[in-house]
Amino acid sequence: MAFEPATWPRRLRSQEWYGGTSRDAIYHRGWLKNQGYPHDLFDGRPVIGILNTWSDLTPCNGHLRELAEKVKAGIWEAGGFPLEVPVFSASENTFRPTAMMYRNLAAMAVEETMRAQPIDGAVLLVGCDKTTPSLLMGAASTDIPSIVVTGGPMLNGWFRGERVGSGTALWQMSEGIKAGKMTTEDFLEAEQAMSRSSGTCNTMGTASTMASMAEALGMALSGNAAIPAVDSRRRVMAQMTGRRIVQMVKDDLKPSDVMTRTAFENAIRVNGAIGGSTNAVIHLLAIAGRVGIDLTLDDWDRLGRDVPTIVNLMPSGEYLMEEFFYAGGLPVVLRHLGEAGLLNRDALTVSGVCIWDEVKDARNWNEDVIRPADRALSASGGIAVLKGNLAPDGAVLKPSAASPQLMQHRGRAVVFEDIDDYKARIDDEALDIDETCIMVLKNCGPKGYPGMAEVGNMGLPPKVLRKGITDMIRISDARMSGTAYGTVILHTSPEAAAGGPLAIVRTGDMIEVDVAVRRLHLDLPDDEIAARLATWTAPAGAPDSGYEKLFQAHVEQASTGADFDFLRGCRGREVPRDSH
Ligand code: FES
Question: Going by CA atoms, what residue is nearest to atom 2 of ligand 1?
């Protein structure tokens, strides 16, 4: 039969594959028809890729195939043609040496999956920590219309009448065992209570933080971040997202239209208000780099300083994501920020309207979960960026998760050369350490680990824990889990493995931390630091081949987002030439 493709609403990029009567068009259409698609689906309507990070080995995203069906329903309803596409799923709890080493690989794979295939718009189906930033990075690099829908958090865990927060409880209980306050049998019993349903971590860990960042950036529909994974409203959200992406393609509403500097400023402030993960710093810097926005660590410090932490969730507070949803979720936080003059109200969102229009009527249903500013958990909730001769390019600290009495401190360094050294010596009763010391961990940064593992929140020595001490200052070039807490200084840049000053700290050196003035100082004369750096040699390098070699050769420092140097900027959506 004759086939004249429609122009809906104009010739879309998918028509470069499916449009017309050429041999190539028949080749592309014909193969897809083996799935039983009728001919008129190739009439020029938008082809929407549902980029799905489902994997049995990413249990946080284990329910995303069901959610994809709801997304598909929404796309069909709106006149689009949905095609589900598996993409690299960087699982936080299985990938070694760390999922972070694969974030950039996943982002590359997503970018090329979108550009090299007949995709006019994309629904980014994500959840676990790295899946959200990697898909946002990939989509930003193509600038093809894209929208996020997350899998949502798990329901509250409960153990012996207490809330069990994902990750947070794990850290607390393992320290409880070391301190002799909990038995291994109790720990095993608690394990059963930690993961009560499908979904991502139920604390304000990195997954919930990044879901909130996506919403604050305007890249998800309003209210998306907090809906529990198993709540029927999560499925409604997925279906509405499917409907919305079709219109976004029609309007050519691109990531670069939404993820503007004003949107990133909103996200940084939201991170302070929710007590979000320090990992958001690295991920937002990387995403901004993909859309060509020069976001810096100084932006994080400047914009977050006056933002109170008002969301009372673990690890900074008491509650979990389920209660955040019942209290009204992120729209309430955005409304509070808007009323306080801390929101760029006119930032555009994927819904096509400005963010203020979406949240201005949001109601707070529980003021213990989302506090008014005069009862904030922390008056200054933003990320503190410390600088000094120990971190010339910066290091980060999350004040809302730190101990106020340690915000200004001078202590003797106890140095661990790498994570194996730390594990080998931390439980040694002969280790010369007390609670006034500062624990220093080297060679856990982007190049050093490699991949920058979440090991910065080093557990305290048992002999300190037995005194009832629960926090000490810890400094490293590592990251820490968003579910963790403590006075933990992270992302020290440049990292030790790249020859940063952290590399030459020795046990017994004195270190000064003063968060109020953002100072991180190694108390040594400049000439002594220079002499030590002159004799420093880099640790053994990467293997001769493979992804790890690529990673170590091209990963940037944490202070600029730890992306690959060759992936900064947007490479666009131009259709590659055909090979058939
Ligand atoms: Fe996947 Fe926490 S480990 S969301």
Answer: 201
> Does 570 fall in a domain?
no
**Rounded to the nearest whole angstrom, what is the distance from the C-alpha of residue 203 to the centroid of ligand 1?**
10
Closest atom of ligand 1 to CA, residue 60:
1
Question: CA torsion 291→281→443→203, rounded to 10°?
Answer: -130
Ligand 1 atom at minimal distance to the Cα of residue 91: 1
Same domain, 216 and 309: yes
Residue 83: phi and psi, rounded to 5, are -135, 120
Q: How far is the CA of 8 from the centre of ligand 1 (A)?
A: 40
Q: Is residue 3 part of a domain?
A: no
Instruction: Choose which residue among 60, 130, 196, 277 to substitute to test ligand 1 binding: the one with the highest number of ligand atoms within 8 A of its C-beta.
Output: 60
Ligand 1 pocket list (CB less than 6 A): 60, 92-93, 128-129, 166, 200-201, 205, 207
Contact partners, residue 171, CB within 8 Å, separation at least 6: 457, 459, 481, 483, 484, 485
Are 403 and 535 in a shared domain? yes
292 with 337, same domain: the answer is: yes
Determine the pLDDT at residue 3.
47
Atom of ligand 1 nearest to the CA of 166: 2
CA-based nearest residue to 384, from 368, 372, 395, 371: 395
Residue ranges of the chain with per-residue pLDDT less than 70: 1-9, 579-580
Distance, in Å, from the CA atom of 97 to the CA atom of 90, rounded to the nearest integer, reads 12
For residues 187 and 140, membership in a common domain is answered with no
pLDDT at 54: 98
Where in the sequence is the domain holding 484, given as residue range(s)?
A: 385-541
- pLDDT averaged over the chain? 95
Closest CA to 365 of 226, 482, 196: 226
The pTM assigned to this predicted structure is 0.96
Rounded to the nearest angstrom, the distance between the alpha carbon of 130 and the centre of ligand 1 is 9
316-373: per-residue pLDDT in tens? 899 999 999 999 999 999 999 999 999 999 999 999 999 999 999 999 999 999 999 9
Query: Same domain, yes or no, for 306 and 425?
Result: no
**CATH code: domain of residue 419:** 3.50.30.80
Tell me the per-residue pLDDT of 186-227, one tens digit each, with 9 for 90 and over. Answer: 999 988 888 999 999 999 999 999 999 999 999 999 999 999
